[in-house]
Task: inverse folding
């Protein structure tokens, strides 16, 4: 039986999602708990994609196979009891055996939180990126609209990336808005390159400070050169917000939207 | 020259304010930085009082003596550059040589944050106490009013306390209010016993869940017996909010209110 789970995690104390030889990872913590529940029989999980060190998730999706007969709400409770305090399982449901958390993704949404203002907030230092200089939200939003649609995002892909194939991706929705002292950048797309959202954010911050004009974004996209774009914004402001699946699903997509 | 500083800290990664042989403390981190600034000459700081492991401060006050000639705004900048990310200096000012951060306190305010609702928020787990059962804020506020004024607070003092003298203290202001999904308990007084605020909060939570009637609070106070009061609420919801001084001060108390 294949199960799909929506999970949240606070990325602060993790070396990222994916298992690695050194450092605590989200994947390892979850697999440890599942393996314990299966009396030592190793259980592997597959996520919609990985997230980097310090990046958070409120709607990450994973799948795994099990032969345990546990009702879904009890799965949530059992996992949350055993998982560390910085990982939370929001929902578990049965899916067809050919459901795949990574291959079947139709869209993903990321959100990036900037705290904009002279004074920082030490209690949020792991959860927002503090930018002291005033940002022009309207200009940032305008600039963000150049990202809409299908483009070669080479300029917005980390030079360290080992992407196979092209760097053409499609952004289906993007916007910048103010919410109290926070500026929130929403980016939704069918696929993302390594560090793509954080480089988009870094570039939009340059627009917000006035360092770049809004229409420079189209030139940067056209340049297909990482050096032309802005800095990679730091990880702590980034949240994997939601993962959507259209295929092989029972159309009850509601359960995938992490209520947050 | 004596300086007074208002400091904030995120208590999560500290074994409390006060220096101890094992564990990282706020006092030690600040003294290390000051000693470095004084080229190795040890500098001692004195706070308005200590806070326990996991307890936060947005308006803790300290004093120390220095012979360095640095303008006050530069003190703030220099300290913040050298201090770790979970301590922040908000303001520094010169005070008379006989000012004492502990002995001269006239009032202190603590605030306790409860996040009330079925779902927890893993991103706030170090900053609020999550109570899933719905609390009756009106009843909690009503019950809190029994604490106003001068009482023997023996029932609200940790049994581990080694307080010398009596346990009579004066609460000058107290209230419970809802703010979005948070319930905030404000307690202001001229002095506090060990764990006093957290036991008051634990008792008010019992009122909020209906386990105790509002007027039981006056019986608990009268009992002068720790066993009659509620549990000690956990540290992560507690903030030392503000410390007031009336004596030996230039009456410019504004600078003492941490803008938060």
Result:
């Amino acid at each position: 039986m294949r199960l799909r789970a929506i999970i949240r995690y606070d990325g602060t104390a993790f070396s990222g999602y994916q298992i690695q030889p050194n450092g605590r990872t989200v994947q390892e913590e979850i697999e440890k708990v599942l393996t314990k529940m299966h009396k030592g029989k190793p259980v592997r999980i597959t996520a919609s994609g990985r997230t980097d060190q310090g990046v958070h998730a409120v709607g990450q999706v994973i799948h795994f196979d099990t032969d345990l007969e546990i009702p879904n709400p009890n799965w949530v409770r059992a996992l949350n009891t055993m998982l560390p305090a910085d990982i939370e399982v929001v929902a578990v449901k049965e899916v067809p055996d050919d459901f795949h958390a990574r291959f079947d993704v139709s869209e993903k949404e990321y959100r990036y939180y900037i705290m904009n203002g002279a004074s920082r907030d030490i209690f949020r230092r792991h959860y927002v990126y503090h930018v002291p200089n005033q940002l022009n939200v309207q200009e940032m939003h305008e600039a963000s609209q150049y990202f809409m649609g299908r483009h070669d995002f080479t300029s917005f892909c980390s030079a360290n990336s080992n992407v196979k194939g092209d760097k053409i991706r499609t952004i289906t929705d993007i916007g910048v808005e103010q919410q109290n002292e926070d500026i929130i950048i929403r980016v939704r797309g069918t696929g993302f390159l390594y560090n793509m959202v954080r480089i988009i954010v870094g570039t939009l911050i340059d627009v917000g400070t006035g360092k770049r004009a809004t229409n420079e974004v189209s030139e940067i996209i056209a340049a297909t050169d990482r050096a032309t774009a802005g800095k990679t914004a730091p990880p702590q402001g980034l949240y994997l917000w939601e993962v959507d699946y259209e295929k092989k699903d029972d159309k009850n997509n509601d359960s995938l939207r992490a209520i947050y």
Summary: Chain A touches chain B at residues 8-10, 56, 85-88, 119-120, 122-123, 125, 127, 259 (CB under 8 Å).
